[in-house]
Structures are given as structure tokens and as C-alpha cells.
Specification:
This protein is of the alpha/beta class. It is built from eleven helices and eleven strands. The chain has a single domain (9-325), classed as TIM Barrel.
């Protein structure tokens, strides 16, 4: 796999179909990654990211590939997760990089954190405004197999409490086979979001509904007002449509998942599982970028739901701004 830096004729055709007359002029990306290679242990990131530096500035430049004639106004970025890396150092690097951006490129950062981390550094960073929330990840639970960890396993209560205190974002990549359709995940999300109502919870990837059938579990969370979902790297309209039906267009946020967005491929539902397909692995060079497939799916879901320009503007920017406005409010 490789990160694409140019579009081919098919990419341009499909991107136009996905965006023309649909995407608003100003966009906020709620889910994107940065990479500082010296902070990662050898072999801890995929080959297409090995030795690659993705700063907040280079990410913004790369996104011009799939946001034609649009202006990426705001963005929320966080370090790419890996099992072995220097989290505090990478977080500090990200804060410093964001500080160098001009005021015309407002960018916020989430600290990547582990359950056993000392909360003090992120508390200090939030208090100073350098950090706008937390991005825990299942890799950091002390087990060889983390595929079945619960929300509380990788995002313990100290993270919820800290984000609640600051009105900050808690970005969650749900695990377990059924993701948001899993009863244990559902119970923990309902309980903790009610206990910490000022914690702004973003359930990444439509609550990890790469298998669109899992999205039906969102119905159990409909009455949790501080929970929302992002669209990052979801390439099927069905899960996005469920999110729009259950949460409404006010609680669905556009996310690119850069650099994943710039790989050729897509994810499909197969029975009760998800299957990632990549162009190189499947000898299918005519596949388009994951970011384009996700935009196609989002447009289809919005069309099916009968959404107008105001609601689409909410998804692409306004909802994210509302989440940011809760910080230190």
C-alpha cells in the first residue's frame, strides 16, 4: 500500500460525483492523524508510514487532494497509534507543530494516551489550551490480544473525568466484535456519558461500524446527548444512514482519517464481519481512495435521508465547531 499524492481520471470523476453540489465551501475535519517517525519503535507502524513525517501542516496540504475547491478551515488531529512509541514526546511534538500554524489554519490536537498514563501532563496541556482532548486506543491495554477490550479497559474513568472537567473531546475507537452493537460497550457508554455529561464523546468510524450492521446498536445510545459519531474511513452508506436516522444530522461529523483516506481501497460488510480491500493486495488498480469512497457513501446517506444544505453544512463543519465550543465553556 502507498499514500497517493495524485488523482487519476477515475478518482477525479468519482470525487466530482461525490462532492459537486453537495460539499459546502468550508469544512472541518474531526479525525486525522499526524506522525513523528522518531517517536515510533522500528516496525511499529505499517510500511507506508515507516519513516514518513506527517505534520499538521503537511496533513492540511495533503487534504487538498480530496477537498477540491473547498477550504479546510478547522481540523482536529492526533498521533497515529502504535503499540510501541513515545506517547508523551509525540504529543509534545504535535502541540509544538500546531503552535507554528498561522491563525488562518486553526487546528486542535488530541493527546494519545494509555490507561496507565499519568494524567498530569494532559491536565496541564488542557489547562493551557494546547490539548483539546484525549485519544485512547486499545493497543495500550496490557494484553497480547486487545480485540475484545471494553470501553473501560482502554478508556478508564480518569479520562472521562478529565475531559468532563474541561469540556474536552474523548475520541473512542470501539473494540469487541460487535463494536457499538455489543451490550457491554453500550452499557459502559450510557453510564459514563451520563456521569460525565460535559465530556464530548466522539465515536470514531460511525462507532466502528465498518460492518454496517453494527450501526444498529446506536439506537441504544440515542438518549446520550454528549455522544456523537464521525464518518472517518467508513465506505458504506448503510451505517451512515443509521447514524443520521438515530442521532440526526446534528450528531454526525465529517472525518477523513488521513492518512488512511489516501490509500486505495474500501471496507465492506461480509456477514457479521468487516473486510478491508486494498488495491495492491487485490490487484485492483481501478479502486479509488478510501477518502473518496467515504465521501460517496456520505453523500448517498444524506440523499437517502432527504437532508438539505443546512444539515449537510452541520455535518461538514458546524457540528464540530459546536463540540469545540464546549472546551473550557
Amino acid at each position: 500500500m502507498k499514500l497517493e499524492t495524485e488523482l487519476n481520471a477515475l478518482d477525479r470523476l468519482l470525487l466530482a460525483e461525490a462532492t459537486d453540489g453537495f460539499m459546502p465551501a468550508k469544512v472541518c475535519d474531526i479525525h486525522a492523524h499526524v506522525v513523528e517517525p522518531s517517536g515510533y519503535a522500528p516496525g511499529s507502524v505499517a510500511a507506508h508510514l515507516t519513516g514518513v513525517t506527517i505534520s499538521p501542516a503537511s496533513y492540511r496540504a495533503a487534504m487538498e487532494l480530496i477537498l477540491p475547491e473547498r477550504r479546510l478551515v478547522e481540523a482536529l488531529v492526533f498521533p497515529f497509534p502504535a503499540r510501541q512509541h513515545d506517547r508523551p514526546a509525540i504529543n509534545r511534538w504535535m502541540y509544538d507543530q500546531i503552535a507554528t500554524l498561522p491563525s488562518s489554519s486553526p487546528t486542535q490536537g488530541l493527546a494519545i494516551v494509555a490507561p496507565t498514563d499519568d494524567p498530569a501532563p494532559t491536565e496541564e496541556a488542557m489547562a493551557s489550551g494546547r490539548c483539546r482532548g484525549l485519544k485512547p486506543y486499545h493497543f495500550y491495554v496490557g494484553r497480547a490480544d486487545t480485540s475484545q477490550v471494553t470501553v473501560e479497559d482502554f478508556a478508564p474513568e480518569w479520562m472521562w473525568k478529565q475531559c468532563d472537567r474541561h469540556g474536552a473531546v474523548l475520541m473512542l475507537h470501539l473494540m469487541r466484535d460487535a463494536a457499538v452493537a455489543d451490550p457491554i460497550n453500550q452499557e459502559q457508554l450510557r453510564r459514563l456519558s451520563a456521569k460525565y455529561p460535559n465530556c464530548q464523546v466522539v465515536l470514531a468510524h460511525i462507532a466502528r461500524s465498518f460492518n454496517h450492521r453494527n450501526a444498529r446498536g446506536l439506537r441504544t445510545l440515542a438518549n446520550c446527548p454528549n455522544l456523537c459519531v464521525d464518518t472517518s474511513a467508513v465506505t458504506e452508506a448503510e451505517g451512515m444512514r443509521v447514524a443520521l436516522d438515530v442521532f440526526g444530522p446534528q450528531r454526525v461529523l465529517y472525518g477523513s482519517d488521513y492518512p488512511i483516506s489516501h490509500l486505495r481501497g474500501r471496507c465492506v460488510t461480509v456477514g457479521n464481519q468487516m473486510l478491508w480491500l486494498y488495491a495492491e493486495e487485490n490487484k485492483a488498480p481501478q479502486m479509488t481512495l478510501i477518502g473518496i469512497e467515504s465521501l460517496i457513501a456520505l453523500r448517498a446517506a444524506c440523499t437517502q435521508a432527504g437532508l438539505g444544505a443546512v444539515d449537510v453544512q452541520r455535518i461538514f463543519r458546524d457540528n464540530a465547531l459546536a463540540v469545540f465550543a464546549k472546551f473550557h465553556a
